[in-house]
Amino acid sequence: MRTAIVCLLCCLAVGGLPLACVDPWDNTLRATNDVLVVDGTITDRSEAQTIQLNRSKADSITGRFGSLPLTKAQVTIIVDSAQVVVCQETTPGTYQLPSDFKGQIGHAYQLRFTLSDGSRYLSNQQVMQPVPPISKVTAQFNPKAISPPFADNRFTAGYDLFIDLTDPVDQRNYYRWKWTLYEPQPWCRSCYEGVYAKNLLEPIVPASYPYYYQSTQQPYEDCFYPPVGSLPRNRLANQYADNPCRTQCWEILHSQGINVFSDRYSNGGLISKRSVAHIPFYQETPCLVDIRQESLPVDAFHYFDLFQQQTQRPGGLSDTPPSALGGNIHNQANAAEGVIGYFTASSVAITHYYLTRTDTQGAEAPGLFFALNGRPPVVGTYLDFILNLPLDRTALCVPLDRRTPLKPEGWP
């Protein structure tokens, strides 16, 4: 969702004056180039439940939008207009509910927060709807699976993933799909104009030209950078040093677009071969795809459906630029302020799909490292300024939002 919001803001910034826009928040955005962005969904899964608060501003010269996390806010979730659950700020701009909290079908949730400047915001209520399970997943290789605006026309090959599900009868259902891709990652750390040191490096006294160092027994596990102007730093100038992983490691990639669906014309019965993911063909090794099928309240569906149309239209920048979509969150003292994003509640069904990549029709993969970095890995670098350097040149797989050393659930 956050990626799609950024996509919309970028279109607003570079698309010129959007004369065809009729959104009520449009004039406010053009006048201020400053907008509050909120992203948060309550689910019924045992997972981190977070709310993200950011302020997007356009540079006065380039018009490009940048994102500033909003810290020190007071964020709460109101359950059924009675219970108040307090969120804690875990990283700048990210507020997490208690670890044992998860939503329940049929209950109503409302977001309320106060920014550090005293501005107060409130969402409308969102009632969590049930969602059926995914009954079947199929994959098909497609040389043109990845298309604009999510392809750079260099790596377009991939797999189209389709699902079957049985839609409940006698009730209107609204769906949203997301995916998470786990790719085996053999490279764990890149140092630019530096070297990866497993142990702390100390200068050999006197610490002067030509700057020799020795490896100690104290753990370091980070990039080491010789002093600017020193001979080692000069010889490392404009060079990368890439280090393989010491243990197993997976790169985590997330879906970027919005994919929503209403059962208006297929209420009840089998929904077959619904397209839910386009997985890039970055490497030939198998990967794991987590497919999330989420329920949506009707108002949330209409918001995301319009967002999907505006951010994924095929015309590109030559098409009519999109307008900014005001969501369901409002400034309690200033109803004219536009807030982008939507707070909602979703029941979630997850399917783990192991993609073997055995039918690529002779296509060649660029390699994960090259696809993500635009260059091949560099394994050799200047290291003779370090005495007694350990032979082990591997790096730790540090748990991050986009990397994990833990085997994903569903990996065989």
Number of helices: 5
Oligomer: single chain
Question: Rough shape?
Answer: globular
Output mean pLDDT: 87
Number of strands: 26
The tally of structural domains comes to 1
Q: What is the CA-atom radius of gyration, in angstroms?
A: 24 Å
Low-confidence parts: 11-32, 315-321
SS-derived structural category: mainly beta
Q: How many strands, what sense, and barrel or not for the largest sheet? A: 6 strands, mixed
Strand-residue proportion = 35-45%
Q: Please bin the fraction of helical residues.
A: 10-25%
User: Termini separation (Å)?
Assistant: 29 Å
What does this structure look like?
It is a single chain. The chain has 412 residues and is mainly beta. The chain has one domain (2-185, 251-355). It contains five helices and 26 strands. The chain has helices spanning 2-14, 26-32, 231-235, 298-311, 368-373, and strands at residues 34-43, 50-58, 65-69, 74-79, 83-86, 88-91, 94-96, 108-114, 120-123, 126-127, 134-142, 158-167, 174-184, 187-192, 195-203, 213-224, 240-244, 250-254, 259-262, 269-280, 287-295, 329-331, 339-346, 348-355, 386-387, 403-404. Strands 1, 2, 3, 6, 7 and 23 form a six-stranded mixed β-sheet that branches. Strands 4, 5, 8, 9, 10 and 22 form a six-stranded antiparallel β-sheet that branches. β8 and β9 (120-123) form a beta hairpin. α1 (2-14) crosses α4. It starts with a helix and ends in an 8-residue tail after the last strand. The relative contact order is 0.21.
